[in-house]
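call fold(seq) -> C-alpha cells
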Amino acid sequence: MKFNLNLEDIKYVKILYQDRENKPCSAKAAIKSFTGTEILCCAKFEESLYIKTPQEITLSFVCLEGLYRTKTVLQRVENDEPYTFFSVAPPQNLEYQQNREYFRVEIALDCIYSYESGGEFINIDTRTTDISANGVSIITPNIEINTGEAYLNISVFNKKIKTKVKFIRSEKVDSGYKISFSYKDITERDRDLISQICIQKQLEEKRKHLK
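ret:
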C-alpha cells in the first residue's frame, strides 16, 4: 500500500539497522517531524552508539490499529543529548504486518523465568515489560540468556500461564536487561487470554488519545 499514514495514529516507530560489526540492532523512536524528503525520528541517547550511514533499514510503524513495515534508507544519525535523531527517507510503500491482538503492549505482570543450567533449573522471579499473543519480554538484573530449555510462568488475572519459550534477543536498559522471547508451546486458550489483554490495553490507549 502507498504510504499515507496519519501521523496522529502512529504510536512510535522501530528502526532495524546494522551496527559497525554488521549485527542487527533496533531503536524505538518517536516521529518528531515529517517532510517530503525526511522523517525525523527521536530516540533516547545511547553512549558509544555508532551507525553507518547511509544504509538500508527496516522501518516499522506501530499504529493504533496495526503494524506496518517497509524498507527505506537511514540518511544520517545525529546525537544531541539526551536524544539521538534518525533522519529516514520517506518510504514509497508499506506492508501491513499484524493486527492489534499481536502487538506487544507494555504491561507489568509477575512471572517466573526458569531455564536449565548445569543439569538443573534456575528460577528467577521477575516481571514482564510487554506481551503479545506471539511473545513476551521480561526484565532481569543480569543478562540471563539461555538457548536450551526455558519456561515462563506468567500471572494473568489470578491465572497462571506456563509456556515454553525461545530466546529472541536481549538489550541493556536502565533497570537491567530486557530479554525477549517467542512462545514455543502455548495452548490456544492461553493465547486467546493474552490476545484479550492486548486488545483491552490498546483500547485503553486509544481512549487516552481521543481525550
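The first helix runs from residue 188 to 210.
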